Every structure is written in structure tokens, then in C-alpha cells.
Amino acid sequence: MAMIEIDLDMPEGLHLSGYERIEQGHAFEVDWPVDDTFTCQRCRRSEKTHVQYGDKIHVIRDLDVWGQPSFFVYQPPCHRCGSCNHRQWLIPPFKRKHVTYTYRFERWVLQMLIGSTEEEVARRLGISAEMVATIVAHQLQDEQHIAPGLQITDVGLDEISLKKGHKLYATILTDLTESSRPRILAVQAGKDQAAAEKCLDCLSQEQRRQVRTHRTDMSPAYLAACQIKLPNSQSVIDRFHVAKRLGEAADRVRKKDPGLQKDTIGGAAERVSVVSVGVSPSSGGVDGAGAKAVGRTLREAAGVGGGLLGTLGHHGSF
């Protein structure tokens, strides 16, 4: 039997203890170290952590593996206070409370929203548009903090449209220093100059001086913000927006002269494929139906494999 080994970029401190290949998805059994002491939320008493485990198995969406959905699977730990007997769940370090996806899945969703909409991203990932909207809302509410020691030489400013047909926008600042692994740095509501400047203000003054290039669309608001905040940076208009503007110009010419045929223009009016501009493509063809099938498999997988992966029929989230 052939064996394939792959390197996984796991969140810091997370331990991988099991794996199960389940139809169109991947399930990773994980655990993590808990603090030695714990403070009870009810009585405020600090004591040695008394770890207990809940009966339900939690299934949390993470980044795709090989273009297919992957999930963290774990038995949720809790602390039982020795003074007031209050039970308090210990939230994993890789997700926020009351959600079923990781922090890095949230950032991935934001990246996919560049040049797309909530509905389109939801369809491609097999999740609801409401979940996408919730992720954006969480990111806008979070305190924007960038490590002062982070070396950033190239950044991107993009607008995202939150709902098709609605004038709801946000601005995203992305670290493009390592082009193969872009990172979301900041998110602000709106697509005007003020929103762009708020994003750039999340960088320290020294970090702004170190930026060499900034990639934006041809929005005067973004260009003006970068000119003010990034004194040593050169503007780079990304090819997606160049191609988009060319397509829009060709459309205007065609509409003014009804005699022109689309094929005469050579397809210039067609929208640029997300693949050709480096935006993450659809998850290996797994649309909404495919991802939902994975979810059903995870929920119905009782008896498959050993350990937690054999009890996925009892799942939950907090």
C-alpha cells in the first residue's frame, strides 16, 4: 500500500493526534495544552485547572487540503471550579467562541472576497452567505493589531463588496511581502480614503517607511492614502484591475456601436478569470452541495475509525 506524506501548517501549539479521510473532506483529530491555573468566571477564584471533557465532539472548519475541505475534530475540555462547582468551557486557541471555523479560515474568506461577493464566496466554500457576513462583521469588530517587529515590504489595498447590488463595502490591507502566502493585516468599513488610511495606520511609522510597493486598483482614494502614508513606496496597479478597466472600455465602445459583435472585440469584454489573477479558485470543484455532503458525512460517521474520529455522530460547537 502506498503512503503519502504532506507537510501541514498547523496553528502554533496545536497537536495532531489522528486523521481520517472522509469522502470529499479531511478530518484531523487535535488537542492542545491548557494552562496550569484557571480563574473561575463566577466566583473569580484561581486554582489549579481541573480538566474534564464534554460528551459532544466538535467539528471546526479549517483551510482546504488538496482543494478539499478540512476540519479540526476534538473533544471539548472544561474546568470544574472546586469552590462553586461552576463548569466553564476552555475555548481552543485557534477559534473564537460560538463559531464553527478557525481564525485562519476567517482570513481566507476575506481574501476570497476580493473581487467577489458574499454569495459567490459562500457558494464556492459550501457555507451560507450569513456565515460569510458574520466573519466579515467579526473582522471589522476585532482590534486591529500588527506586530511592530513584522517586516513588511509590499502591501495591497482592496475593496470587498459585502452584498451584491448593495452599496456595502470594506477595505482590506494585505501583506504581500511573501507573494505566495498573502496575509490579511487590517480591515475597515468603507472604500474611501479614510478607510484606506485607517488600515495603513495599523502599521507602525517604521513599517510604513519600509514599504516599497503598494498594489491597488485605480481608485483615487486608495492612491491618495498610500501617497500620504507610504512615503517610500511605489504604486503598482494589479493586472486584474487593468484587465477589468480594459474590458469596461471595450464594453462602452461596443454599446455605442450596435454593429460591433462581441467576437470582433476578441472577448475583451469578458471578465477576467479569478485563476489568472492569483485569487484562490474554487475548492477543487466542491461547491455548496459538495461541502454539504462532507458535513453530512462528518455528522454520520459514527463507527468510522477509532478515537474521536469514530464518534463524529455526536458533535457540537460553542
Verbal overview:
The chain is α/β, with parallel strands linked by helices and 318 residues long. It has nine helices and 15 strands. The chain has a five-stranded mixed beta sheet with strand order 1-2-7-6-15, sandwiched between helices. Strands 12-11-10-13-14 form a five-stranded mixed beta sheet, sandwiched between helices. A three-stranded antiparallel beta sheet has the order 5-8-9, with no helix packed on it. The longest helix is centred in the C-terminal third of the chain and has 18 residues, at 239-256. Residues 264-295 and 299-306 have low confidence and may be disordered.
Helix content: 25-40%
Give the C-alpha Rg: 23 Å
The overall pLDDT, averaged over residues, is: 81
Distance between the termini: 39 Å
* Low confidence ranges: 264-295, 299-306
Structural class: alpha/beta
Envelope shape: globular
- Percentage of residues in strands: 15-25%
Largest sheet: 5 strands, mixed
List the helices and strands in order. EEEEEEEEEHHHEEEHHEHEHHHE
List the strand order in the largest sheet: 1-2-7-6-15
Specify the number of helices.
9
Counting DSSP E segments of at least 2 residues, the number of strands comes to 15
